[in-house]
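Give me structure tokens for this 715-residue protein.
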Amino acid sequence: MSRSSTTPTQVPLAFLDAAAVEEIPLVLWQEVLAISRVVVPGGGELSSHAEILDALQTASASAELLEALQSINELGTEGGREAIVEALTDAQIDLQGIPDCGEREFSLRIYLRQRLDPALAEAFDRAQVRLQEGEKRRAYHDFFGRSALAVMDLPRAKARLAELFLAHCREQGLGEHVQVRAYRRDELLVFQVLHTYRTRNPLAVLHGEDGRRQIRYRPVHGDIVRYDPRTGRLRVAARAPSLVAPYRRIMGAVLFEDPAFFSADEVCNLRVLQEKRRTALRCDRVRGVFFVRLVECLWARGDSLVTIRAHDCFEEVERLQLPFEEGQLMAAKLKVSVAGKSTRPVSVTIQVPSKVEVSNKKHEQLIDELLEAMGVRVGPAREAESLWTLAPWRQRRARWIAAIGALQVDEWVARGLLEPVRLGGVAHPDAPGAGPLLRVEEMDGAQTFGTSLEPSLPSRSLSATDVEGLALDPRRLTELLAARLRLTGRTSVGSAEATHALLGDLAVGERWFQVVVLLRQPRPTTSLEIRSLRKSAEQVVVVPPGAGELPGLATIEQNVLAPGFDRGTLALAIARHHNLEDTLRATETAPAGTELVVDLVEEEVWVYGERIPLTAGAHPYKFIAALARARGAGVCALTLSQQLSPAGRDGTLPARKAKRAAKQAIVEALALRGKRLNADHADPFPSAGRQMYRSALSCHVREPALAPVHDAQGE
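Here you go.
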């Protein structure tokens, strides 16, 4: 059972915004601390905002204190003020007595008054509901470090952060003011950064004046950066999204003298929602969470984006019969019902690779637990590419190269399997695993621009090669696979949206199997459609590794895009699945292009597909078998001689004689078929160093099956 965070003992770090604290007059803070029963260190009154921050960092998080801080942080914005005013106007409540003040002070004064006024309290609640759906909230971004390392010198890290961040502000024209507070909370290192931002020149009317004039000032932002040495994870909550990436680099240099210490790799992965759907939203492992719904998502299929909004997105996906397992979820919005005084669900927005927004900051720790239990917050490891991960098969050339290799990409382009296309969306170079975050737009003068969907990643100009992609033709791929596997019978594939393709029939021993490849994630009717293809032969379905079984079908896990996927590997996989290994000859299971095949069961040797007449147990046969088993590695000539003649004392002579006899037998057998050894293999068993031999031919060996083990009672 996860530890509950519904009644935290400390103020959530997300509420400790130093800039927000300083915007509230001390007299109001005195009132907040009094009703929240916060004991002031030393027993006196607080005389500065720094003392307020110190008190909040150590205070017990009572319900009153959390509500006050939530009012400041969530409603203390321009949108929050508008929501409050609208709610009060609807309720016909006069704002008389509230001074003209800033947003944060205004929201706190309303909060303090509504505690004693039921009508005002109802309007205040309605304002919070309105804001929850419409207000843009500050997000946090998580990053993984290379490893989980401790930081011993916190004062040095604080000074170094102030130095490097001030240099960044000067370089980017953000002003000259940076102040850093740093402290430890349990195991966490917490850095509060106050800094100026870009100059503003609004038109204003100053107090005591009638005329308008421009005022020039720099706003002050408060950011919070935390590092957890237990997990090596950095969390950045910056008011300006453009500062997220600089904080990641600067904190790497500050803590570990390595700007690249914290990776930009994927931390949030929404694949689990595509694979498990509603099952992924089960929250019984997290105490304090009642239910979770997916109410909005951004879904990328190839270079296309689809937005789904519904009371239950999974219900809408099923109603429209969308192939939801394909492509990649780039963003998801969850409604989370949590235990507590308020009945309003918490809104959680996750955007890959690293961004999370929580509507109610006091539940941030609980949401962390929920996302980890769901499998959304994970490590940066990515699944291997396959037909399923690449569907609907419109990808940049670089991704095709990563999946099948540059040489095979060139070959497939030449043969028409991959056709050039212009992409409508491409990945951002700073987040290559996050999907097509850059939407391609044509500018004047034949220029191309990529508009970023993630504010923390900058938009950028795109070259012609950036937007060039390749689209796979599934029909031609089906023909290629059938030819590579040397299958017989009918080959067919349906439309470009088909889930499967019939490749043909393959003999495994004395049995015939109809081979079907599953091109993309199966749909509810896929198993029935595949079974309807079956005629007389038995049927096997090829799926990517890790895909699992399909109900009622014999499933073989093979990556059909891998160069090693050929007739031999498929036949062996089918034989293992049906316990037919003893019926296969070594030549049937050897990978395509194998030059030397040794069958230790039938005691046969084949070179270039021709059987070499060697006596089983004779020295040449044993010599070839030993080198084939080594698969190109060197084998000691003295060891070989001892294996050939255990009682002999002739040094390496038995091995040398066996080599000459083996080569002669191969040359003579090939000559009878009009063949000869390739020029590169004129000596099939060359020296591998002093008194060492190796096989220059690519090798495949069929080993005898292990004898069954019986216990004493069984015997």
